[in-house]
Amino acid sequence: MQVIKRIYMKRRSGFTLVEMTIVLIIIVLLLLLVIPNAANQRKHAETTTGEAFKSMVHTQGDLYANEHDDQRPTLQQLEADGYLSAKQVAKAQSAGIEP
């Protein structure tokens, strides 16, 4: 009996084709669940970032108006007075955001 166990254990050193196929199928199913969620999260993050940027430009416009007798600024005025950087002004102009 011990001889049979030793022979069986010697031959069974790796995985069978069926075991490898099952593992591969499980991995593929998990990836199918994860990939669509990652795409949705990226889209949500882009939307949230855009809303936050728009809110920031409006807040800077409100700060400018408070300091300049309620005069609403242009993007160029916000840049000239240091409320926004040139990069932020270019981004706001391309997105069509006004303060």
From TrEMBL:
<keyword id="KW-0488">Methylation</keyword>
<dbReference type="Pfam" id="PF07963">
    <property type="entry name" value="N_methyl"/>
</dbReference>
<keyword id="KW-0178">Competence</keyword>
<dbReference type="InterPro" id="IPR012902">
    <property type="entry name" value="N_methyl_site"/>
</dbReference>
<keyword id="KW-1003">Cell membrane</keyword>
<dbReference type="InterPro" id="IPR016940">
    <property type="entry name" value="ComGC"/>
</dbReference>
<keyword id="KW-0812">Transmembrane</keyword>
<dbReference type="GO" id="GO:0030420">
    <property type="term" value="P:establishment of competence for transformation"/>
</dbReference>
<dbReference type="GO" id="GO:0005886">
    <property type="term" value="C:plasma membrane"/>
</dbReference>
<comment type="similarity">
    <text>Belongs to the ComGC family.</text>
</comment>
<keyword id="KW-0472">Membrane</keyword>
<dbReference type="GO" id="GO:0009986">
    <property type="term" value="C:cell surface"/>
</dbReference>
<protein>
    <recommendedName>
        <fullName>Prepilin-type N-terminal cleavage/methylation domain-containing protein</fullName>
    </recommendedName>
</protein>
<dbReference type="InterPro" id="IPR045584">
    <property type="entry name" value="Pilin-like"/>
</dbReference>
<keyword id="KW-1133">Transmembrane helix</keyword>
<feature type="transmembrane region" description="Helical">
    <location>
        <begin position="12"/>
        <end position="35"/>
    </location>
</feature>
